[in-house]
C-alpha cells in the first residue's frame, strides 16, 4: 500500500534513541533499508542490530559539516542511493531567561538543532533523485514560546527548523523532492539529559502537562511512528512544506 517503503533507502539522524529510534523501527517494519546515524556510536549500533532490516550504523555528529558529508556518502556507497532522509537529531538544554542565556550554550543548541538540520537537508538533497523525501523534526516550540524557563535557544532553533523546512520545500520542489516537518509536543525520551522522563522528579510538571493535553497523556516515541511513515511514503504525495503537529492537542487550547 501507499504507506510501504519496500527496498527504499532511509537515513535517520539521532537514530540511537527516542523519536529517531521509533522512526527507524517504523521504517524497518515498512520494508525500508536503514542508514542509522548518531554521535552515540554504541547506541546506534545496538539499534541497527535489533532491527529486522538491512542496516548501516553510521557514527556522525550532525553539527560537523564534514561528518554529514561523510554520513551521506557512506549511505550512498552502502545502499546505492538515498530516498528518504529524516533530519531528526537534536538536543534540549535548559538555560536561563534570554537576558542571561549563556552564549556558549546558545551556540551549542543552534549548532546541532539548526546547523545540523541544514547540513543534513543540504547533503541529502544533493544526492537524491526526483521523488526524494526529507522530514525534519521541529517541535510545537517552532510555533509558540514557552513559559518553561530557559528554552530561548531551543525555541529559536526549532522556529528556524520549521522555516528552513518550508524554504527547502520551495527550493527543492522543482527537483521533485518533498520536504515536511513533524512538530511533536512533549514526548517521553532521554532529551535534556533525562529531565523530561517520567522518573525525573519533575512530577508536578508532568501532571500539569497531562492536564493541558487533550488526549490526557504525554507522548511516547511510538506516537510518532504513524506521522513518520506518512511523510516518508507516497501516502503524503500532496504534502510539502507542511509542519504537522503531533501533540495530543496540547497546543490546541
Ligand atoms: P533523544 O535524546 O532521546 O534522542 C536524540 C538523539 O540524537 C540521541 O540518540 C543523541 O545521541 C542524538 N544526537 C544528539 N546530538 C547529536 C549530534 N550532534 N549528532 C548526531 N546525533 C546527535 O531525544 P528525542 O526527544 O528523541 O529527540 C529527537 C528530536 O525530537 C530532536 O530534534 C528534538 O528536539 C525533537 N523533539 C523532541 C520532543 C520531546 O518532547 N522529546 C519534542 C519536540 C521535538
CATH architecture: 3-Layer(aba) Sandwich
CATH class: Alpha Beta
Number of strands: 7
Q: Name the ligand types.
A: nicotinamide-adenine-dinucleotide
Look at the helices and sheets and give the structural class: alpha/beta
Q: What name does CATH use for the topology?
A: Rossmann fold
Poorly predicted segments: none
Tell me the number of helical segments per DSSP (H or I, 4 or more residues long).
7
Q: What is the N-to-C order of secondary-structure elements (H for helix, E for strand)?
A: EHEHEHEHEHEHHE
Overall pLDDT level: 95
Number of separate domains: 1
Side-by-side strand order of the widest sheet: 3-2-1-4-5-6-7
Give the biggest sheet.
7 strands, parallel
- Beta-strand residue fraction: 5-15%
Distance between the termini: 35 Å
Shape: globular
Please bin the fraction of helical residues.
25-40%
CATH superfamily: NAD(P)-binding Rossmann-like Domain
CA radius of gyration is: 17 Å
Tell me what the structure shows.
The chain is of the alpha/beta class. The protein has one domain (about 10-245): Rossmann fold, CATH 3.40.50. It is about 40% helix and about 15% strand. It is built from seven helices and seven strands; from the N terminus they run E-H-E-H-E-H-E-H-E-H-E-H-H-E. Strands 3-2-1-4-5-6-7 form a seven-stranded parallel beta sheet, sandwiched between helices. Strand 5, helix 5 and strand 6 form a beta-alpha-beta unit. Helix 1 packs across helix 7, helix 3 packs parallel to helix 4 and helix 4 (about 105-125) runs parallel beside helix 5. The model has no long low-confidence stretch (mean pLDDT about 95). The chain binds nicotinamide-adenine-dinucleotide. Nicotinamide-adenine-dinucleotide (NAD) binds near residues 13, 137 and 186.
Amino acid at each position: 500500500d501507499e504507506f510501504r517503503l519496500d527496498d527504499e533507502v532511509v537515513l535517520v539522524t539521532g537514530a540511537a534513541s527516542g523519536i529517531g529510534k521509533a522512526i527507524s523501527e517504523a521504517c524497518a517494519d515498512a520494508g525500508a533499508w536503514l542508514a542509522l546515524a548518531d554521535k552515540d556510536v554504541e547506541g546506534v549500533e545496538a539499534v541497527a542490530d535489533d532491527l529486522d532490516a538491512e542496516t548501516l550504523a553510521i557514527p556522525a555528529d550532525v553539527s560537523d559539516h564534514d561528518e554529514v558529508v561523510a554520513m551521506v556518502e557512506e549511505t550512498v556507497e552502502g545502499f546505492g542511493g538515498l530516498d528518504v532522509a529524516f533530519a531528526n537529531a537534536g538536543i534540549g538544554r535548559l538555560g536561563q531567561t534570554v537576558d542571561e542565556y549563556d552564549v556558549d550554550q546558545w551556540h551549542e543548541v543552534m549548532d546541532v538543532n539548526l546547523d545540523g538540520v541544514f547540513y543534513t537537508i543540504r547533503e541529502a538533497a544533493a544526492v537524491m533523485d526526483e521523488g526524494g523525501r526529507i522530514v525534519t523534526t521541529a517541535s510545537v516550540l517552532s510555533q509558540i514560546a514557552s513559559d518553561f524557563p530557559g528554552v530561548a535557544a531551543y525555541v529559536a532553533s526549532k522556529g528556524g527548523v520549521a522555516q528552513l523546512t518550508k524554504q527547502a520545500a520551495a527550493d527543492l520542489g522543482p527537483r521533485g523532492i518533498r520536504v515536511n516537518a513533524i512538530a511533536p509536543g512533549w514526548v517521553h525520551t532521554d532529551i535534556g539529559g533525562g529531565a523530561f522522563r517520567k522518573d525525573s522528579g519533575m512530577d508536578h510538571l508532568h501532571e500539569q502537562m497531562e492536564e493541558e493535553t487533550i488526549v490526557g497523556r504525554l507522548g511516547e516515541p511510538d506516537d510518532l511512528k504513524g506521522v513518520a511513515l506518512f511523510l516518508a511514503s507516497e501516502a503524503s504525495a500532496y504534502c510539502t512544506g507542511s509542519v504537522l503537529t503531533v501533540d495530543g492537542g496540547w497546543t490546541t487550547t
